[in-house]
Amino acid sequence: MDTRIEFGIVDGIATVTLVNPAKLNAVNAAMWRGLRDTMRRIAGDDCVRCVVLRGAGEEAFAAGGDIEEFLTVRATVDDALHYHDELVANALDAVRDCAVPTIAAIRGACIGGGLEIAGCCDIRIAGESSRFGAPINRLGFSMYPGEMAGLLALVGPAVVLEILLEGRILNAREALQKGLLSRVVDDEKVFEEVAACAARICAGAPLVARWHKQWVKRLMSGAPLSDAEKRAAFDFLATDDYREGIAAFLGKRKPVFRGR
Amino acid sequence: MDTRIEFGIVDGIATVTLVNPAKLNAVNAAMWRGLRDTMRRIAGDDCVRCVVLRGAGEEAFAAGGDIEEFLTVRATVDDALHYHDELVANALDAVRDCAVPTIAAIRGACIGGGLEIAGCCDIRIAGESSRFGAPINRLGFSMYPGEMAGLLALVGPAVVLEILLEGRILNAREALQKGLLSRVVDDEKVFEEVAACAARICAGAPLVARWHKQWVKRLMSGAPLSDAEKRAAFDFLATDDYREGIAAFLGKRKPVFRGR
Amino acid sequence: MDTRIEFGIVDGIATVTLVNPAKLNAVNAAMWRGLRDTMRRIAGDDCVRCVVLRGAGEEAFAAGGDIEEFLTVRATVDDALHYHDELVANALDAVRDCAVPTIAAIRGACIGGGLEIAGCCDIRIAGESSRFGAPINRLGFSMYPGEMAGLLALVGPAVVLEILLEGRILNAREALQKGLLSRVVDDEKVFEEVAACAARICAGAPLVARWHKQWVKRLMSGAPLSDAEKRAAFDFLATDDYREGIAAFLGKRKPVFRGR
User: Fold this and answer.
1) Which of A96, A173, A237 has the most C C-beta neighbours within 10 Å, making it the best mutation to test the interface with C?
2) Does C222 or C241 have the greater pLDDT score?
3) Hey, which of A136, B27, B112, C141 would disulfide with A236, CB 3.0 to 4.6 Å?
4) How far apart are CA B120 and CA B122, in angstroms?
5) Mean pLDDT of the region B26-48
6) Alpha carbon of A150: minimum distance to chain B alpha carbons (Å)
7) Residue C159, Cα to own-chain centre: how many angstroms?
């Protein structure tokens, strides 16, 4: 079976592709492990400025987990813990913890595990005919709590529960209205808009993007900032990129950032 | 006066109806007590798979509290504490804590206490001409903090304050846009859509619905999951319904769940 | 240079105007100090029932900070701490902590510091052609975490990160959809709608508005209410305005509140 996580970097933009063409890119155990490890590897690569996550082809981002596999890989509580905590939840955390900006490029089905992955990205750009949900109430099992964090942070408990309790499939406009998506464009323009979004991110200072992710995450913890943290918030003052950014603004020209 | 909480169960779907036809279903002290006790009773009934909350008739969900009654039932701080904490806040908590999915079916006025009740349900389906607000700034009193929790969890502090400070009545489209509603349909289709929603909920495994509500609530507390809780998240593995759900999926047929 | 914070009170409505016509009302250090001190002064004035924050003219609410000034006023970490913590963050906190309702009246550019100020108001009313963002990733610096609190409370981490990472300028409809705005009206109707909103606020009991702001803020802290706080929630029972509000309701006339 041709199932894998594809990975490539072009001009500082990493693309991570979920590949399982026979099952609308349903994510199996090997792919969850691959996604986890790939995202962790990106964390250590200073050349990457932005990550695009997508499904192979145009039919699906990912249509959920691989149900057939459940009979073997999560037959016992220990197996299920390994599958959902070690593989799935850790893969999702690796997406959420990614130091650089992440964009989910969504065409077609974005269901179950696919929705969980998209919900852990920073920006979600979807086509008009894409669809969203997690109809596992009809499969007789509940979502692992460790997999809910990204969706809860994104849309809050009411929307998460609406999706889980009803098991309904939402269209792109509904998903946008409920805060699940950053924007919706024509199907054939999804990758164009994702490229434009990535270009906007890459036109900014790379360290600034990392700091913004870091500080927002830090603030969400709720604890007040220490004096040392307040001072660290001005680390940009010592960077070449800050001088370049201000000089370019005052000179009315485009800045050229080098990430230092 | 014909004021009461009606209650009935048909095919696992409980319907709780606010009845006060002379006052657009305004909720008085006896009705708050009835709502509290009814919701608590449902908590102990394993036959119920879904609860629909609605107002009697088509003119109102509930137009608020019963203002005339305030002169007698909450004249002192002790009386007010009994009314708002023992009756209202506990009734709202009983709705929020309901173990099975709850749907608010909203036609017409959904004001004050009515809005508080709807905000504590899992799903809110409203008609195009329904209207929302809590214009108590013009009555000279503030909302009891213990009654705000559901609305704050649903839409956050900014929308709650906009409603309370301005005292404006919102139409259904505004309420949807602000996250107060799950969806809006034509007035005459509200109960049809609520029935379809309840049917979707009842087509899922009953235990799964209860687990989803339980885990989302647990995660909102913020504390990390213990190892025992992580294992408990896989209690579904031991259920007949899980085996049925997977078998039905693989057999491309509809599952029949029995709640065990 | 004509840069200042204008301040005036008419009929209990205070208007705070950001004035820097040469730079689309960009907020400089002196203006941040002025905003902070003005908002703190309002806190002690019992005559004020509502505060409107706006930019001078019709071109901008505020187009950000004053970039040129950065070369001198925040050249070192100590200077930056003074600028962003003592001036900016404290000014924003003074807006958020304002005891009476605040309305941002937004025409044109609402960028960077301007967006931060608007995000700390209770209600945001904007014109169709207004625009929103914080494209500082292209200036090579990150937003001070102490300035993010209002926006995070308003729209959550996903929308804040989308704005910061991409540095894109949003139009009014997108800003509304993402929860950044309370409502959008035709450009030429912004101040009319703000006046109507302020009139609705002023038609309510002044103490009730203050209590609503206080209790929502208190609940967002997460700690359970003490018995003393629960009793304090009924302080309205002892006010003239409560008696007036109920009497007017029962007498089917407009109440006249005196703030006591």
Assistant:
1) A237
2) C241
3) C141
4) 7
5) 94
6) 11
7) 18
Partners of B200 on chain A (C-beta within 8 Å) are 166-168
Neighbours of B246 (CB within 10 A): 18
Q: Rounded mean pLDDT of chain B?
A: 96
- B180, B176, B88, B168: which is closest to B135 by C-alpha? B168
Number of inter-chain CB pairs under 8 A, B vs C: 132
pTM for this predicted structure: 0.97
Contacts of A141 in chain B (CB under 8 A): 205, 208, 236-237, 242, 245
Residue A170 host element (H or E): strand A170-171
**Calpha distance B159→B180 (Å, rounded):** 9
Q: What is the pLDDT of residue C222?
A: 87
Instruction: Give residue B2's pLDDT.
Output: 87
How close B249 comes to chain A (CA, Å)?
7
Which residue ranges in chain A fall short of pLDDT 50? none
| C contact chains, 3+ CB pairs < 8 A | A, B
Q: What is the DSSP letter of B161?
A: H
Partner-chain residue, chosen from B182, B216, B231, that has the shortest CB–CB distance to A148: B216
Kindly report the number of other CB atoms within 10 A of residue C4's CB atom.
15
What stretch(es) of chain B map to CATH 3.90.226.10? 4-202
Number of other residues whose CB lies within 10 A of the CB of residue B199: 13
Look up residue C224 and give its two tokens.
């359970």
Name the burial class of residue A252, with classes exposed (0-12), middle (13-18) and buried (19+) by CB atoms within 10 angstroms of its CB.
Answer: exposed
Give the mean model confidence (pLDDT) for residues B42-53: 92
Concatenating the DSSP letter of every residue in C136-195 gives GGGTT-PPPGGGSHHHHHHHHHHHHHHHHHH-PPEEHHHHHHTTS-SEEE-GGGHHHHHH
Test the C interface: residue of B23, B78, B86, B138 with most C CBs within 10 Å: B138
Residue B132 — pLDDT band, cuts 50, 70, 90?
A: very high
| Domain at C4-202, CATH homologous superfamily | 2-enoyl-CoA Hydratase; Chain A, domain 1 (3.90.226.10)
Query: What's the DSSP call for residue C27?
Result: B
C77 → closest Cβ in A101, A154, A237: A237
Kindly give the residue spans of alpha helices, DSSP state H, lying in B54-166: 67-73, 77-81, 90-96, 113-119, 149-166
For residue range B87-128, list pLDDT tens digits in order.
999 999 999 999 999 999 999 999 999 999 999 999 999 999
Indicate the helix (H) or strand (E) that contains A167.
Answer: none
